[in-house]
């Protein structure tokens, strides 16, 4: 019984499920048909709208195209009218040209006829001239060629005479004007470049604070003084003058090295021979740097560029060299300015003239080939360091020791004379004195084994330092006698000259 009820329930459920599925399928099919009809209707509406839009776009494009076509037609019509108008003008001009061509042909015919008449007249004139020339030759007794030659010779002689007279007048006027112009240029140059003159001396004063410092400088038994004099070649005079030590030497570079060395030693407080040699060596290197800086500053002040570094160093050394008592650097700067002014007045290049004027005395500060005159030595150095040929010639010819081939050479000669001729600019006695002392030192240095030579005591003593490895004690004694004999035979000097040969042996060892 229970099974019957279960089966009946299952059958009822199955029938209900079948009825639900059938109902659902029928309802879904109706909805799908409704959606399909709506979609078809929407598609038809969209189609109609697109068709309307396409028709409107087509009408718009058609209107624009018709407007452009009408505009092009109007432009073509205007161009056609312009071409027709131009064609009419060209036809009118062609007719005018044809008329002018006919007139020109008629005028050409008339000209040809006139030319034929002129040619006939020219032939008649030539015949008459030839007949007249024959009659003149018969009367004068010479041919036309001979008469022409005689006339030309007479004209040449007359022209030569007149030209010579004109040349003479011109040269006389040029000489007069040249003399006046030269005086004007020189006077103007001297006025524009006037500088103060200063005379160099051979003594430098070194101030000290008290006599205790003086005693320390002298050292035990004078060993510090001897070491300083041997290292610098300067005579150090310590006398009763309070708070002052005198440094005496004809070479300003040595005096400056000694002054700066003493200054550093006094400030440092350590004064002994080893320290003295160290300071002198250091100061010498510093002075070389200062010399180079002086040369560079001088070139910048004068506007001179491109000089070789060795020439710049030589220019700096001029600061510590005098010529007849006149400071050589100041003299060279003055000559450079004088040459520049004169070159400007004469229409020449003032930079080249200034360069030659500055370098004209570099041979005086060079230690190469001392037997060569300083002008020729300076030209040799300038050529060695690639200076321009006109500058080299101006340097070498400023004392007329070589031929002047440059227009700047007379300027340097005149500038050197103007600078040296200023009242009080030079003192001949000092120059001869320095030459004599320099000659003594060079004579001693010419012997083998000599490392240094210093003329001190105003030339009354010559100190010669030799290498202990090269010269023995016996050779040192013989060397002093030989030098004294050569000085006595070859040089002129007042009084006596004491020759002191110093031979020092040093043994150095380092403890590590």
Report on this structure.
- The chain has 512 residues and is mainly alpha-helical.
- Among the domains are: 323-426, Orthogonal Bundle (Hypothetical protein af1432), CATH 1.10.3210; 429-512, ANL, C-terminal domain (GMP Synthetase, Chain A, domain 3).
- It is built from 14 helices and eight strands.
- It has helices at 2-140, 144-192, 211-218, 223-232, 252-268, 273-302, 309-317, 328-345, 350-359, 374-384, 389-396, 409-420, 428-445, 473-490; strands spanning 203-207, 235-237, 244-248, 322-323, 326-327, 450-456, 461-466, 498-503.
- Helix 5 (252-268) packs across helix 6.
- The chain is flat and about 160 Å long.
Characteristic key phrases:
single chain; 512 residues; mainly alpha; Hypothetical protein af1432; GMP Synthetase, Chain A, domain 3; three-stranded antiparallel β-sheet; three-stranded mixed β-sheet
């Amino acid at each position: 019984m229970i099974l019957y009820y279960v089966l009946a329930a299952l059958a009822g459920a199955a029938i209900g499920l079948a009825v639900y599925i059938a109902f659902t399928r029928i309802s879904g099919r109706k909805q799908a048909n409704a959606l399909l009809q709506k979609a078809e209707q929407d598609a038809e509406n969209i189609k109609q709208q697109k068709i309307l839009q396409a028709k409107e776009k087509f009408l718009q494009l058609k209107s624009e195209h018709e407007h452009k076509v009408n505009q092009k037609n109007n432009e073509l019509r205007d161009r056609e009218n312009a071409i027709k108008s131009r064609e009419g003008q060209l036809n009118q001009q062609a007719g005018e040209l044809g008329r002018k061509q006919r007139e020109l042909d008629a005028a050409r015919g008339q000209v040809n006829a006139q030319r034929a008449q002129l040619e006939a007249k020219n032939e008649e004139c030539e015949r008459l001239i030839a007949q007249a020339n024959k009659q003149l030759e018969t009367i004068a007794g010479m041919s036309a060629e001979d008469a022409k030659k005689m006339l030309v010779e007479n004209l040449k002689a007359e022209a030569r005479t007149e030209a010579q007279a004109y040349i003479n007048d011109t040269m006389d006027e040029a000489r007069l004007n040249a003399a006046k112009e030269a005086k004007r240029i020189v006077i103007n140059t001297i006025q524009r470049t006037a500088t103060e003159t200063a005379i160099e001396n051979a003594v430098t004063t070194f101030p000290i604070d008290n006599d205790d410092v003086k005693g320390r400088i002298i050292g035990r038994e004078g060993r510090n003084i001897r070491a300083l004099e041997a290292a610098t070649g300067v005579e150090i005079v310590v006398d009763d003058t309070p708070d002052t030590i005198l440094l005496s030497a004809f070479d300003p570079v040595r005096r400056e090295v000694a002054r700066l060395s003493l200054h550093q030693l006094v400030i440092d407080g350590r004064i002994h021979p080893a320290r003295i040699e160290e300071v002198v060596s250091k100061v010498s290197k510093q002075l070389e740097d200062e010399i180079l800086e002086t040369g560079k500053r001088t070139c910048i002040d004068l506007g001179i560029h491109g000089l070789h570094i060795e020439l710049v160093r030589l220019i700096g050394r001029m600061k510590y060299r005098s010529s007849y008592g006149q400071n050589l650097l100041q003299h060279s700067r003055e000559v450079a300015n004088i040459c520049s002014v004169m070159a400007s007045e004469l229409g020449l290049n003032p930079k080249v003239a200034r360069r030659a004027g500055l370098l004209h005395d570099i041979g005086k500060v060079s230690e190469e080939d001392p037997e060569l005159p300083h002008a020729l030595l300076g030209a040799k150095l300038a050529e060695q360091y690639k200076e321009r040929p006109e500058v080299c010639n101006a340097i070498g010819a400023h004392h007329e020791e070589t031929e002047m081939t440059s227009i700047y050479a007379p300027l340097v000669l005149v500038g050197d004379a103007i600078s040296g001729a200023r009242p009080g600019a030079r003192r001949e006695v000092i120059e001869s004195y320095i030459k004599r002392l320099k000659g003594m030192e060079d004579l001693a240095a010419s012997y083998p084994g000599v490392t240094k030579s210093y003329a001190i005591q105003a030339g009354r003593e010559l100190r010669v330092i030799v290498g202990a490895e090269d010269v023995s004690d016996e050779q040192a004694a013989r060397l002093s006698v030989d030098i004294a004999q050569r000085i006595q035979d070859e040089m002129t000097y007042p009084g006596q000259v004491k020759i002191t040969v110093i031979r020092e042996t040093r043994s150095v060892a380092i403890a590590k």
